């Protein structure tokens, strides 16, 4: 299993979410973050303290999938996330040792996304 972590522009998220949902990957988390890339943060001194400015708001996506699905996730992020301008973001892929669905206690890569026939209509 792998966790795909991506820092993207907010505008890219809805298309990514919709495509992943359609492809059978409904499960992900997002966080609003601030970051800097190669342009770096610019530091200024204010009343004796150094403060970083030019931190840009980004969305962080976390999506855990089986190894075979990683390229589907990254291709979808690349498809919708690339404008060609600096600041499009970055994708990282991390190893994941285990996944456990709390409701049932079942474990393994099958619990990461919904590939099965089970229909869940509310609550999640
Ligand atoms: N090495 C990193 N570790 C953690 N977060 C990162 C890293 N690199 C980029 N990010 C996150 O991704 C966001 C966007 O990065 P950005 O696209 O500017 O990368 P870049 O390397 O400068 O590429 P570009 O030249 O396209 O701007 C950053 O604001 C930060 O939130
Ligand atoms: Mg940059």
Notes on the structure:
There is one protein chain. The protein is of the alpha+beta class and 124 residues long. The chain has one domain (2-111): Alpha-Beta Plaits, CATH 3.30.70.120. It is built from 2 helices and 6 strands. The chain has helices at 13-22, 70-81, and strands spanning 2-8, 29-35, 42-46, 49-53, 56-65, 90-95. The strands form 2 sheets. A 4-stranded antiparallel beta sheet has the order 2-5-1-6, covered by helices on one side. It is elongated and about 55 Å long. The protein starts with a strand and ends in a 29-residue tail after the last strand. Residues 7, 33, 35-39, 56, 58, 86-90 line the site of adenosine-5'-triphosphate. Residues 37-39, 86-87 line the site of magnesium ion.
What's the layout of helices and strands?
Blueprint: E1 2-8, H1 13-22, E2 29-35, E3 42-46, E4 49-53, E5 56-65, H2 70-81, E6 90-95
Helix pairs in contact: 1-2
Bound molecules: adenosine-5'-triphosphate and magnesium ion (MG).
């Amino acid at each position: 299993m792998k966790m795909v972590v991506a820092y993207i522009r907010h505008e890219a998220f809805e298309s990514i979410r919709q495509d992943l949902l359609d492809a059978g990957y409904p499960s992900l988390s997002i966080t609003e973050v601030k970051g800097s890339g190669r342009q770096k943060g610019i530091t200024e001194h204010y009343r004796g303290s150094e403060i970083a400015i030019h931190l840009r708001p980004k969305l962080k996506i976390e999506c855990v999938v089986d190894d075979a699905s990683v390229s589907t996730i990254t291709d979808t992020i690349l498809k919708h996330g690339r404008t060609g301008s600096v600041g499009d973001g970055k994708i990282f892929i991390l190893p994941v040792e285990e996944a456990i669905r709390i409701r049932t206690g079942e474990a393994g890569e099958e619990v990461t996304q919904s590939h099965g026939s089970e229909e869940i209509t509310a609550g999640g």
